[in-house]
Amino acid sequence: MILKQKAEDEKKKEMEQLLLEEQVRKYNQEARERKKKRESKIKKEQTVLRRKKVKEQNELRKKEVKSKAANTPLFNLYKKK
Q1: Which residues of the chain have pLDDT under 50?
Q2: What angle do CA 36, 41, 43 make, to 5 degrees?
Q3: Shortest CA distance to 21 belongs to which of 7, 35, 8, 29?
Q4: 20 to 30 A from 72, CA-CA: which of 8, 29, 37, 56?
């Protein structure tokens, strides 16, 4: 009887240990998924900011070209080379 109870107790402890290990694995998997989503979100935000910066730089270049063209006398454009 005592041996039977010890065997049951050991089996119960083993099941509890397995359950705890499964819970740890599940938590770690969820943590990895959250980290991956967070990194993806950051990467998307960085891409958006980079594109916005490039767009602003292109607009500035366009304005510079237009202002240079506006300030250049027309006779300089038609000079013979």
Answers
A1: none
A2: 95
A3: 29
A4: 56
Distance from chain centroid for Cα 77: 49
DSSP secondary structure of 23-37 = HHHHHHHHHHHHHHH
Q: 18-28: per-residue pLDDT in tens?
A: 999 999 999 99
pTM value?
0.57
Spatial separation of the C-alpha atoms in residues 37 and 46, rounded to whole Å: 14
For residue 73, give both structure tokens.
């006398």
Q: How many residues does this entry show for the chain?
A: 81
